[in-house]
Design brief:
Chain A: Belongs to the binding-protein-dependent transport system permease family. FecCD subfamily. The complex is a heterodimer of chains A (375) and B (490). Chain A is an all-alpha fold and 375 residues long. Chain A has one domain: Orthogonal Bundle (ABC transporter involved in vitamin B12 uptake, BtuC), CATH 1.10.3470. Chain A contains 15 helices and no strands. Chain A has helices at residues 2-34, 42-57, 60-69, 80-115, 127-141, 152-175, 181-205, 208-219, 226-245, 248-254, 258-263, 268-290, 296-308, 312-336, 345-374. In chain A, helix 4 (80-115) runs parallel beside helix 9 (226-245) and helix 4 (80-115) packs antiparallel against helix 12. Chain A starts with a helix and ends with a helix. Chain B folds into two domains: 2-258, P-loop containing nucleotide triphosphate hydrolases (Rossmann fold, 3-Layer(aba) Sandwich); 269-489, L-amino peptidase D-ALA esterase/amidase. In chain B, 29% of the residues lie in helices and 29% in strands. Chain B has eleven helices and 24 strands. In chain B, helix 4 (113-125) runs antiparallel to helix 5 (141-154). Chain B is elongated. The N and C termini of chain B lie far apart (81 Å). Classes of the chains: A mainly alpha (375), B alpha/beta (490). Chain A binds chain B through residues 3, 6, 10, 113, 116-118, 249, 252-253, 255-257, 259-260, 262-267, 305, 309-311, 371, 374-375, and chain B through 48-50, 70-71, 73-75, 77-79, 81, 84-91, 94-95, 98-99, 101-102, 104, 109, 132-133, 137-138, 140, 151, 155.
């Protein structure tokens, strides 16, 4: 029964991939917490994080019980400044990087699956630009809607991203009947360029200080955000991820084309709307808290697919894990490379992502070439 | 099972399909035929729901299709169309398991044990198991279509809708796929509605066909509906001849291209052939093929042939496989047996008689070898078959005329009648019964016609051409039998 053996091996392989990705997340997170100008020993980091986490949810006595059973030091023994650095600066930063990376990678995977287009990602199809425009407007004019409060920024970013998506699709519909790969990318780039010029216009109308602020924001960064931004992104991320994860079968079915998906019982119209909304939610929230960070949504799902195959049942969750840890790592590089100064994280992702993506494209072509030679 | 009532619909407000009615019963293979633009695909899309019906109703088991949810519909109806493009590198098994989509239950909608069993079964039947972990885009077109068929069967539908599923396939894969479908139809009672392009393939597999012309049905019926040639000519605007399949009782259609109707110049009958004669064989070779009817060992039936041979065999030749022997000899003399009629005789070939006759503008040549050692009175003979003496009458008759198939048979009769008369006039007797013989036991005859000039339907005794055939054959047979007598006397 060599067949069943192979099958067992395959399922085990997938299991190991999850373990490996999970481990990768933990390692990068630990590195992110550890490496900086002030070195805090690892046990202390654990003490700070566990105690603070438990503190925010549970009673103080339970807390003491846990720290004792885990043989961790007491928070009271930790210097106050170290606790501040880990709990209020580094930990939210690592969490935020994870959330942004996970959201962008998941959104990218969903866009690619839905549009049956390996080049689709929040950037190439213009959603990020749209969200950025919304965010710039909110930041520049200091708008706050009374009902939404601190959620004004992500809400506006999500909505403007979604609107941009519809404009891009409208443009594609008008120019060609089918949702051809090239047309979508082209339309996305056209709209992005247009939005870019609007942002430039806004910037040039402002004073010098806000100009630097916005430009720096546009490059993308997770630095100096704190817990506030983590709280902003998490509800959108959870909701958007759920919306996409429950549609993994529909994403697989859509690989057959919309007609054939309809024939096997997929409610194509409804699924499409849910998936587009979910992906826009993730993109908009990520852009709102971190600015424009490119290539994560493009490269990460590609890498995941190479290892797991295209089945969205695994591509989606693994994209979350790998995307999140990738951005933690990118953030680490961004603040290490010219320390004590920091680079915008978008520069790092582009510097890593672009060559990787180019390599993937070439690899794909070579694969195709082999296939043709076989024929 | 599948009922369509007064279906109206199309892409725009002016409907392409205007009131189509039909009903397909359970377990039936129904094929929709019609040229491009007749509305086949429109009907198909109206049934699958890709196009909205403007009027009319489609129902399955008397339940309107529009009342089904997408999932309920997918459990009943599956669709297989021309090759689809599948994005990303899904494996064959992943593609097939998509067919279980409408059946998956539970919170996480994973594949159940039952789902997996169905998938194994359909992979077995469609013979794609060995590709299960191969990427879909790496397999060939024929295999891809088999995988998509497996996906459709995994859906366990009651009705299968096929839109030219064999369009890109070669003959091998076309027949493989349709045989599979036919088997599934017969064993599982699957109802099939298919659009097929190839009339002959449709004739072999369909239970019933519908002929679509300009958005409405011209005719609906069993495959013998395809024998209505004029109807097909109206629809397809090509000259069509209906024939019977040689081994299956189904019609097959032969199309006549327009270019063949205008023959550049007429063949000169007198110079269009050459004759080779020696002790071994007589070989008449024409420049272009003639319409031929014969009962020769090789080249039997009605065909288009160029080479006509009569081979000499030993007196006591008793080959168990004369056809094979003839092929061997013809190969030796480089005569292509696929384009030939070949006969055998033990008569000396130097005694051959060639008679040419022309009456009005009808020219006939008869080439006859005769021996009457086996003369038989067909009306009065015992049923024994032990004839081993020399003697058979082999006649080749070449006619410069244009015969229908009926006229060929007519001419065959005329030639036979003339031969019988010749035997009669020479007083040839059946040695066993001592009555007048009508033939020898193994006579062979061929009629080859140039198909030039005006087409004629009759070549019997009531026609000029029939009489010319009769007189020529009579004269040639008469002379040939006389030569045989002379040789006996020596």
């Amino acid at each position: 029964m060599p067949n069943t053996f192979i099958r067992k091996f395959l399922t085990n392989k997938v299991l190991w991939l999850y373990v490996l990705s999970g481990g990768f997340v933990l390692c990068t997170a630990l590195l992110g917490l550890l490496i900086s100008s002030v070195t805090v020993p690892i046990p202390t980091i654990f003490t700070i994080i566990i105690t603070n986490t438990v503190n925010s949810f549970l009673d103080h006595t339970v807390n003491l019980f846990i720290t004792n059973t885990l043989h961790l030091g007491l928070l009271e023994d930790v210097p106050r400044n170290e606790e501040m650095i880990i709990w209020n600066i580094r930990f939210p930063r690592v969490l935020l990087a994870f959330c942004v990376g996970a959201s962008l990678a998941l959104a990218g995977a969903a866009f690619q699956g839905l549009l049956r287009n390996p080049l689709a990602d929040p950037y190439t199809i213009g959603v990020s630009s749209g969200a950025a425009l919304g965010a710039v407007i909110v930041i520049f004019f200091g708008i706050t809607f009374p009902v939404l409060g601190s959620f004004t920024l992500p809400t506006v970013a999500i909505i403007s991203g979604f609107v941009t998506l519809f404009i891009v699709f409208g443009l594609v519909r008008l120019s060609s009947r089918s949702l051809a790969i090239e047309t979508i990318i082209l339309a996305g780039i056209i709209i992005s360029a247009f939005i870019g010029s609007i942002i430039s216009l806004i910037i040039s109308l402002g004073d010098r200080e806000s100009m630097t602020q916005i430009i720096y924001w546009l490059y993308g960064s997770v630095a100096m955000r704190g817990w506030g931004h983590v709280q902003i992104i998490i509800p959108f991320m959870v909701f958007g991820s759920l919306m996409l994860l429950v549609h993994y079968r529909e994403l697989n079915a859509l690989a057959l084309g919309e007609e054939a998906a309809d024939h096997i019982g997929v409610n194509v119209k409804r699924s499409k709307i849910y998936i587009l909304m979910g992906a826009s939610l993730l993109t908009g929230a990520a852009v709102a808290v971190s600015g424009s960070i490119g290539f994560v949504g493009l490269v990460i799902p590609h890498l995941v697919r190479i290892v797991t195959g295209p089945n969205h049942r695994h591509v989606l969750p693994l994209s979350i894990l790998v995307g999140g840890s990738f951005l933690i790592l990118a953030d680490l590089v961004a603040r290490m490379i010219i320390a004590p100064k920091e680079l915008p994280i978008g520069i790092i992702t582009a510097l890593i992502g672009a060559p990787v993506f180019a390599a993937l494209l070439i690899r794909e072509r070579i694969g195709r070439g082999k296939k043709n030679a076989k024929d | 099972m599948l009922k369509i009532r007064n279906l109206v619909g199309g892409y725009t407000n002016t409907p392409i399909i205007n009131g189509v009615d039909f009903e397909i019963s359970k377990g039936e293979f129904f094929v929709l035929l019609g040229p491009n633009g007749s509305g086949k695909s429109t009907i198909f899309k109206l049934i699958t729901g890709q196009l909205p019906c403007q009027k009319g109703e489609i129902s399955i088991n008397d339940k309107s299709l529009s009342s089904f949810s997408k999932l309920e519909k997918a459990k009943k109806v599956a669709v297989l169309s021309q090759e689809v493009q599948i994005s990303f590198d899904y494996t064959v098994e992943e593609i097939i398991s998509l067919g279980r989509f409408p059946h998956q239950k539970g919170l996480f909608k994973t594949l159940s044990v039952e789902d997996k069993e169905v998938i194994e079964e359909v992979m077995e039947i469609t013979k794609v198991k060995q590709y299960r972990d191969t990427q879909f885009r790496m397999i060939s077109g024929g295999e891809k279509q088999r995988v998509l068929l497996a996906k459709v069967l995994a859906q366990q539908p009651e009705v299968l809708l096929l839109d030219e599923p064999t369009n890109h396939l070669d003959i091998k894969h076309t027949f493989q796929m349709l045989d599979l479908l036919k088997e599934w139809q017969q064993t599982k009672g699957l109802t099939i509605f298919a659009i097929l392009h190839d009339l002959n393939v449709a004739a072999l597999y369909a239970d019933r066909i519908a002929l679509l012309h300009k958005g409405s049905f011209l005719d609906v019926g069993d495959v013998d509906t395809l024998r209505k040639e004029s109807q097909l000519e109206t629809v397809y605007e090509v000259k069509v001849n209906a024939q019977s399949h040689p081994t299956v009782p189904k019609p097959q259609l032969l199309m006549t291209p327009n270019h063949s109707k205008t023959k550049s110049e007429l063949l000169n009958f007198d110079t269009s052939f050459s004759i080779t004669k020696n002790d071994q064989f007589i070989h008449v070779q024409f420049e272009s093929p003639l319409r031929t009817i014969s009962n020769g060992v090789i080249g039997e039936g009605i065909q288009w042939l160029k080479h006509f041979c009569n081979f000499h065999v030993e007196k006591h030749y008793n080959g168990s496989n004369p056809k094979q022997d003839l092929q061997k000899w013809m190969e030796k003399y480089e005569i292509p047996f696929e384009q030939s009629v070949a006969m055998m005789t033990a008569v000396r070939l130097e005694d051959v008689v060639i008679v040419t006759k022309q009456i009005e503008d009808i020219k006939v040549i008869a080439v006859v070898t005769a021996g009457t050692g086996n003369a038989v009175d067909i009306t009065n003979s015992s049923l024994s078959q032990s004839h081993e003496k020399v003697g058979t009458i082999n006649s080749m008759v070449f006619i410069d005329a244009h015969f229908t198939d009926g006229a060929l048979v007519n001419g065959f009769m005329s030639a036979t009648e003339a031969k019988v008369k010749a035997l009669h006039d020479l007083n040839v007797k059946d040695p066993e019964t001592n009555t007048m013989a009508t033939s020898t036991s193994t006579d062979a005859l061929l009629l080859a016609v140039t198909q030039q000039g005006k087409e004629t339907q009759y070549a019997g005794s009531g026609t000029v051409v029939g009489k010319v055939i009769g007189q020529t054959v009579y004269e040639a047979t008469h002379k040939a039998v006389q030569k045989y007598f002379h040789r006996l006397q020596k």
